Amino acid sequence: MSVWDDLVGQGPVVAQLSAAAQMSGAGGRPAHAWLFTGPPGAGRVTAARAFAAALQCLETPRGCGHCASCHQVLQGTHADVEVVRPQGLSYGVKEARGLVLRASSAPTGSRWHIVLFEEADRATEGAANALLKSIEEPPARTIWLLCTPSPEDLLVTIRSRCRPAMLQTPPADAIADMLVLREGVDPETAAVAARAAQGHIDRARRLATDPQVRRTRDEVMGLPRRLTGVSPAVMAAETLVKAAEAEQKARTSELDEAETSALRKALGESEKGRMPRGTAGALKELEERQKSRAKRIMRDSLDRTLLDLASYYRDVLALQLGAGGELVNVDLAPELRTAAGAGRPEETLRRLDAIMKCRERIAANVHPQLAFEELNLALRTG
Amino acid sequence: MSVEPIILVIGDEELLVERAIGDVVASVRAGDPETEVIDLAPGGLEPGRLAELTSPSLFGGSKVLVLRSAQDLGKDLTAQVLAYAKAPADDVVLVAVHHGGAKGKALVDGLVKLGGRKIACPKVTKAGERIDFVRAEIRRAGGKISADGARSLLEAVGNDLRELAAACSQLVSDTGGKVDDAAIARYYQGRAEVSGFTVADKAIEGRLAEALEQLRWALATGTPPVLIVSALAQGVRGLAKVGGAPRGARGASLAKELGMPPWKIERVQRQLRGWTGDGVARALTAVAEADAQVKGGAADPAYALEKAVSEIIAARR
Amino acid sequence: MKFRIDRDALADAVAWTARTLPVRPPVPVLAGMHIEASDRLKLSAFDYEVSAQVSTDIDVEEPGTALVSGRLLAEISRSLPPHPVEVTTDGAKVMLRCGSAKFTLLTMPVEDYPTLPEMPPAAGAVGSDEFAAAVAQVAIAAGKDDTIPMLTGVRVEIEGETVTLASTDRYRLAVRELHWKPERPDFSAVALVPAKTLADTAKSLTAGAEVSIALGGAGGTGEGMIGFEGGGRRTTSRLLDGDFVKYRSLLPSEYAGLAEIQTAPFIEAVKRVSLVAERNTPVRLSFSQGEVVLEAGTGDEAQAVEALEATLEGEDIDIAFNPAFLLDGLSAIGSDVARLSFTTATKPAVLTGKPPQDGENPHYRYLIMPVRLSG
Questions:
Q1: Is-above-0.80 flag for pTM?
Q2: Is the Cβ of C284 closer than 8 Å to some Cβ of chain B?
Q3: What gap in Å lies between CA A115 and CA A308, rounded to an integer?
Q4: Does any domain span residue A146?
Q5: Average pLDDT value for residue range C30-43
Q6: Best to test chain A binding among C20, C46, C72 (most A CBs inside 10 Å)
Q7: Is residue A80 part of a domain?
Q8: What is the domain partition of chain B in residue ranges?
Q9: ipTM
Q10: Which of C29, C236, C238 has its CB closest to that of A105?
């Protein structure tokens, strides 16, 4: 067992981080600021958290995953590892200043005082400038771990001060292996799920283990077949949006319930379910956070639907252009070949454009059903 | 103290405004390293506090008081500021930051009349202005860059002045002063094992699967999309240049005319097999489209690039 | 886990520890109170900055640990009838039996609870009441602007038998000296403690007669921490990083004028005069032989005027201050008579109480920077 167990297909990064975690004192010390980047779903935050655990680990070599310190870091409760998770769309200068103040203190009994900033690209420019000084010259035992999708998402001035830890898109077979070994999925299902997830580990896990998620995907991938006329196209939009909503609700309520129950218990819920005075504030805060998250999950769910649909047409395009290589949706190969033969690449390209346009519409807050109706009509004609 | 007691920073080009404020603080600090800087957020000046804010602290020394969004001060506060400006304190520099519009004009006029120094920071909008900016930044950092080099850098980095300024300072410190195309390309390659140029070559040679795979690899390892687009453009442009060169021209004279080294010309000549003039035109259109999307903040730059690569290959047939 | 404990002992221990429970826990387990029963009972609470732990006697039958909602435990232990209390774990629950009353608490994963910081080595002891008073006098001058962390702390300087507390926000500086009993006569240390935490801690450790202060050297155990212990209770707090300003050079060594005013009327007058004026308007003090005139506003149109009796040694002087800062100092000097010494109207003034014996040095000094007078 080790702290790196949750990472998939990131051999070079793990080697780099593990080596750095062994350093301290006489042998030199690890760089004081790190930037974790990589494609969505590859495991940026997981890698940062594993690194934090390794840095604080009580065993030798560092990174055991089971000592009290590793456990607390991986659970997110360790006293000297502060996890910053921007709540809304952005993280402002006031919060940044508070963070800088906290980051300036020495660790309370561990080796390092670590600040793990998930989604650091959400920091406003003012916030980034407030953080800059501390990241340039942090106190001797403070280490910053920042996570963003790509290096360009951060101010160049901050970026240049960080050691890069670049995660790569995990290869499908590495993901499939993980699913077989850790989730007990059969190899065939694992292979299909891994490919369809296009490098997104969590997505692969859910496709492989949650029948509802698989059903939603089947629904989505069946769309091209159902676009036989204007009326079916419009109705299909409603079905798609409902499916995405159902998936989002299931996911959200799963997360919300666990969190709310843990917090209520912590704040002193009685056996009969009554809460003590003065706890309403903390519960309200949690509720707000959950609402924001639900919105994000919904947007992600719709986006995921569109990306899945896009992968269908990219497979078709690849076939039409005679590009070898493996298809994303291997389980639909025969249907994809038929579709490829039935049209021209220009039509497929137009369909892909329509999907991207739909993504923009949804980002601009157009009503999802409307956006999908527009999309389906465009997909029908090509 | 050598810095004027009243300074008006006026304009809406953020980087220049921050620079101006920074320069003032630096000049004051040059005379007194312990200078206290009070940077009031917009709306942060409370009525009645001006006397206290412009009084020295226990630690003594100079002060720089920055009033942001001075255009929003309102009648009463503007009157208080102007009253102060009539008899400013010796060791205090008041910096009023105004965005340059019509609002709060009374403050601007009043301060100028009382002898305040004006620092203009107008927005940089034209390409020519940006090229000038880049060249000035490089000079400021102690280096040199040609107009073409500045254009390349603008293509690679984009229009944000802050990013450009940072890139310029890093380039000068990396190269020791002479910033040429090779330096710019090197600066961006970083750890990416595959540059945009490899993607471009594969696309031009019609190897779709390889091109797409290399593209995905380049993106996954952090190569900025703008750089890949730039490489595609250069590749297709090379086809056009070499393809359109007069028959019989060769060797050193051709190299000179086209501005490309002979080995590169030979390579492009090989790549030209399979291409028609029309095809090249279509490929260029595809790249232009991708360029617009990537620079315009498209929702999915990866898709825009994949599409361009596919279209280049489709254009070759 | 199974043990018996005296009802009052439990209620006191839980109540004291519960003060450190965070109201908005960053993670749910921090809302829990950690229970550890071995030969004694240890209750702990933590909010990542400050930790609190109390140790108390019990009759232990089976040692063990558990994590339960701190608030709930506090409410329950407050309302227990006057009988011995028996505490047992039963699966995922903790049961409290007291007389005929029975309470059940759900447990949280105890292994998720963060390891509490280690206590630094004990450095010496000081009287608890005096400590609380001294801290209150100094914490009042600490800055609240977190862009300069150094100014939000209280500097604790230990040199042999003398402890000096100092804090400033750039515009006023409070310094208090007190005596204590160091473990080693040559002990010397410096620490910067967050002001609010120090004030809360000092106030809450007055149960025992003395407070032991624990402070390590660099690189030793408990680096970056300070600990306080008294009456079976201990707390730790993170220290702030950074060098405090060299404040000693700011304290004037001589004065040109010295005024004495009755503290209570002075406070009332400043309050009245600044109420009438706009908030933040400075209050101007004009000292002459026998009186001081207070005016709100430093310009030509004074908005309120009052006169008070005052004795003055030296030249007449007009000097203005931020009224809130002046009031803070006057409330802190702890003396019926306030003494204000000045050099010029633009240099810091020093506010102290009148020492009981003439010629004695005051233990507390409050330095305050005047505001520029215009017109």
A1: no
A2: no
A3: 35
A4: yes
A5: 96
A6: C72
A7: yes
A8: 6-120, 127-189, 196-316
A9: 0.79
A10: C238
